[in-house]
Write a structure and sequence with these properties.
The structure is a single chain. The chain folds into two domains: 172 residues, Rossmann fold (3-Layer(aba) Sandwich), CATH 3.40.50.1970; 178 residues, Dehydroquinate synthase-like, alpha domain. The chain has 14 helices and twelve strands. The strands form three sheets. A seven-stranded mixed sheet has the order 1-2-9-6-5-3-4, with helices on both faces. Helix 3 packs across helix 4 and helix 10 crosses helix 13. Zinc ion binds next to helix 11.
């Protein structure tokens, strides 16, 4: 068992990483929560696979379970769905002593986090991470969010969970496409973390390798992310680095109307940004093939026709790293050496054309 403890402010929680956790969900949750009502939030893909067994284990451990299933996919990350879930908690008489458990990928984690943080101004929250994205990134750090129209993660909170369970057994039912999109965040984190972790992603040649090494990749990625979050929970400084590839990536993710997964858009965003940062002399030229080989080895896309369109530039305005018309772009001076490159929004068309 690998346990990474995340301490922020007065609060600390464990991220447990092990492939037997799915057999003792009840005991793990009972180790941090007294008996209570639990809103077990999942989606229409994960629910049929794991909801009944998870409910059984929670009930055996003395919890009362309210299962809540939403349609699978990014469209469920909406204020409407969050509102419906909050209404369900109110209808079933949830109190501040009750809790929310997210059983799913990044969409369910982000959505359930919004619900937990808003209901009665905040009730307990636990994540059971079932996708690779959730196991290497989204379940840790407390960023919760929903989208509004074509604006990504525009409404949300910083709200830390009480416990995160990361079990690779869940990945057995994840499609290759969903696994690979999660791997884009692993490549991102390895490039930020330094040569040792980046060397490890250099050895991943195909999808089978991701599955074989998922536990080690999660442990590495979570250890790095936890350290960043502990140093800068609210993204005033170094946490911005975790957004490498996301400024351009988020802009095309929702413009693609579901055709691109989050990780696929981040893959395109990392490449498009890095190619241009090489042209302007910020990043070294060998970074482009180093990133490209890791991303394409597992079939991730690295470019899109949406880049540089008028709608694309409109979307950049809503990036959270836009401060009064200046975008704080995250670039790499080298592996393990991220920096912020401020760029006026008005200069972005010229920057994007610089290739
Ligand atoms: N909060 C953060 O720090 C953070 C970090 C990275 C990504 N995100 C967000 O996470 C989302 C992407 O996460 P995702 O890739 O997990 O998307 P997702 O939750 O939509 O999961 C991808 C697909 O896999 C299915 N799935 C999940 N686990 C499964 C399993 N074990 N077996 C079978 N199917 C399974 C889901 O139903 C869905 O269809 C985006 O909204 C992104 O913005 C948030
Ligand atoms: O945890 C963080 O901080 C991240 O930026 C992780 C990202 O991978 C993640 O996609 C996050 O949700 C992006 O957040 P946003 O602040 O750009 O909306
Ligand atoms: Zn991301």
């Amino acid at each position: 068992m690998t346990t990474v403890t995340v301490s922020v402010g007065q609060q600390a929680y464990d991220v447990k990483i092990n492939d037997t956790l799915h057999t003792r969900i009840g005991a793990e949750i009972a180790s941090v929560w007294t008996p209570r009502q639990i809103a077990l939030i999942t989606d229409s893909h994960v629910g049929p696979l794991y909801l009944a067994e998870t409910t059984r284990q929670l009930e055996a451990a003395g919890f009362q379970v309210l299962p809540l299933e939403v349609p699978a996919g990014e469209e469920s990350k909406s204020l409407q769905v969050a509102g419906d879930l909050i209404s369900a908690l109110a209808e079933y008489g949830f109190t501040r002593g009750d809790g929310v458990v997210a059983l799913g990928g990044g969409v369910i984690g982000d959505l359930a986090g919004v619900v937990a943080s808003l209901y009665m101004r905040g009730i307990g929250y636990i994540q059971i991470a079932t996708s690779l994205t959730a196991q290497v990134d989204s379940s840790v750090g407390g960023k919760t969010a929903v989208n509004l129209g074509a604006t990504k993660n525009i409404a949300g909170t910083f709200y830390q969970p009480n416990l995160v369970l990361v079990d690779q057994t869940y990945l057995e039912t994840l499609t290759d496409r969903d696994l690979v999109e999660g791997y884009a965040e692993v490549v991102k984190t390895s490039a930020l973390a330094g040569p040792e972790f980046f060397g490890l992603t250099g050895k991943i040649q195909n999808i089978t390798d991701i599955r074989t090494h998922a536990q080690a990749l999660s442990a590495r990625a979570i250890t790095y992310k936890a350290a960043v979050v502990m140093a800068d929970e609210k993204e005033a400084g170094q946490r911005q680095f975790l957004n490498f590839g996301h400024t351009l990536g988020h802009a095309i993710e929702l413009l693609a109307h579901g055709e691109l997964r989050h990780g696929e858009a981040v893959s395109i965003g990392m490449m498009a940004l890095t190619e241009r940062m090489v042209r302007v002399g910020v990043s070294p030229a060998d970074l482009v093939p180093a990133l490209q080989s890791r991303l394409t080895a597992v079939g991730l896309p690295i470019t899109s026709d949406l880049l540089g369109t008028p709608a694309f530039f409109d979307r950049l305005v809503n990036d959270k790293k836009n401060h009064a018309g200046t975008l704080n772009l995250v670039a790499l001076e080298d592996i393990g050496q991220p920096i912020i490159v401020p760029k006026a929004l008005s200069a972005m068309p010229e920057f994007m054309a610089s290739i």
